[in-house]
Write a structure and sequence with these properties.
single chain; alpha+beta; seven-stranded mixed β-sheet; two-stranded antiparallel ribbon; 17 helices; 9 strands; about 50% helix; elongated
């Protein structure tokens, strides 16, 4: 069976060993008050541990090795960062180690349960995710809920890092940042980046001057998108948009994008960027101080209604310019609106609450996710197959985080759920 230093760290961190009657190798009684915090950077493995050795209470760092001689092999004897290590945790004590002050470093030999090691090696042997597919459903439901809470907050924090970068680029302009983030979401995965580029090169201040004229908003957005440069000839609506945009481009000194950046291939017509841009224009037309309303509103149904928009009448018979389609209003569907709340509104409110010290907004972001239905995608379908159900968007976001950050990179030892699987 494969034993690694990382696995020993896992055992120590989670105190997965009998904690009564412990002794150091020199026979002194050992009481572990706190194993410390795992250090993922250079330096000792655990910071701020608290242990009682004999009659002395020690607060300091802990180093973990397979063999005590690894201390010398890794060069710790010449690194001052290790001078305040208070306990050396090893699998095998093959050599005494002295600190610079001449004192012999106390050693604790960790006894590993072979069943845990077998469980861990079984996870490593799996070639599909999740590695714990045969046992994760046995983890207690209450513990899964605790893990989901941590995973969801972790995911929100990761998302807010991107929002903060955008906020910094916009010199702390919250409205402009929300405008760009919302635009990115309108592009979904396939056209998210081009949509964000469109919002960046079409300032909210320019759109605000024309927010009561839907045709002008479409002219600005389609012109800036580069999609009015695709052909010399088109239907009247297309040509009128191009003429209107030409005037605005000169008036505001606008510089647009290249039309080739937008992707149409392998997309359902309802997700064509032309239709999404028209719906985005309709949202700008309909919305007045949207961010302020979202900050103030707590009712989910009203928040969903904020995004209940439909493209202008031209799009009732088109998905692309000059190519007629069957008659039908092009509304932003409920699944799309839910997606916007999950991926834009909730993370944005979470960060807004964090930065402005409004705990209520952070809580509201979590409550929105709890109230929305779970997402339907291949990741959630796979979790369903192994017996883990997502009851709402809170759960589905947590499960997406679990898959992306722990299952795919095989970080089972950092996963709260795998801890239960390994120690079962």
């Amino acid at each position: 069976m494969m034993m690694s230093e990382e696995f020993l760290q896992f055992i120590w961190k989670n105190t997965l060993f009998a904690s009564q009657g412990l002794k150091t190798t020199d026979g002194r009684e050992l009481v572990i008050l706190s194993p410390g915090k795992l250090n993922t950077d250079a330096g000792p493995d655990f910071f701020n541990a608290s242990v009682k050795i004999g009659e002395t209470l020690w607060a300091g760092n802990v180093e973990v090795h397979l063999r005590s001689s690894d201390w010398l092999l890794h060069g710790h004897q010449s690194d001052g960062a290790y001078n305040n290590v208070v306990l050396h945790v090893v699998l095998e004590n093959d050599k005494p180690i002295s600190l610079p002050n001449g004192n012999v470093l106390p050693v604790f030999v960790l006894r590993v349960d072979t069943n845990m090691l077998e469980n861990y090696n079984e996870l490593l042997a799996q070639h599909t995710w999740p590695a714990c597919s045969r046992s994760i459903s046995m983890v207690d439901e209450i513990y899964r809920m605790v893990a989901f809470d941590a995973l969801l907050v972790e995911r929100l924090n990761e998302k807010t890092v991107g929002i903060e970068k955008l906020l910094n680029d916009n010199r702390n302009n919250w409205n402009e940042t929300f405008h760009q983030l919302l635009a990115r979401n309108f592009g979904f995965k396939t056209n998210g980046l081009p949509f964000e580029m469109l919002a960046r090169c079409t300032p909210l201040s320019v759109l605000a001057k024309h927010k009561h004229n839907l045709f002008q908003l479409e002219a600005l957005l389609f012109g800036q998108s580069g999609l009015l440069n695709e052909e010399l000839l088109g239907d009247d609506y297309y040509l009128n948009l191009r003429e209107e945009y030409s005037y605005f481009a000169r008036k505001y000194g606008l510089k647009g994008m290249e039309g080739y950046l937008w992707k149409f291939m392998r997309l359902r017509p309802a997700n064509f960027p032309t239709l999404r841009i028209a719906q985005f224009a309709a949202l700008v037309f309909k919305s007045e101080s949207l961010l302020s309303k979202l900050v103030e509103e707590s009712a989910l149904d009203k928040i969903i209604d904020f995004f209940d928009v439909k493209a202008s009448p031209y799009w009732d018979t088109h998905y692309r310019f000059s190519l007629p389609s069957p008659q039908g209003e092009k509304n932003l569907g409920m699944a799309s609106r839910n997606n916007i709340i999950i991926n834009t509104v909730a993370p944005f409110l979470f960060l807004y609450g964090e930065r402005n010290n409004i705990a209520l907004l952070k809580q509201r972001a979590l409550e929105l996710l709890e109230a929305l239905p779970a997402e339907h995608n291949s990741v959630i379908s796979r979790w369903n197959e192994v017996g883990i159900q997502a009851h709402n968007a809170f759960d589905s976001q947590a499960l997406i985080q679990l898959k992306n950050r722990y299952c795919e990179p095989t970080k089972c030892l950092q996963c709260m759920l795998s801890t239960k699987v390994i120690s079962r």
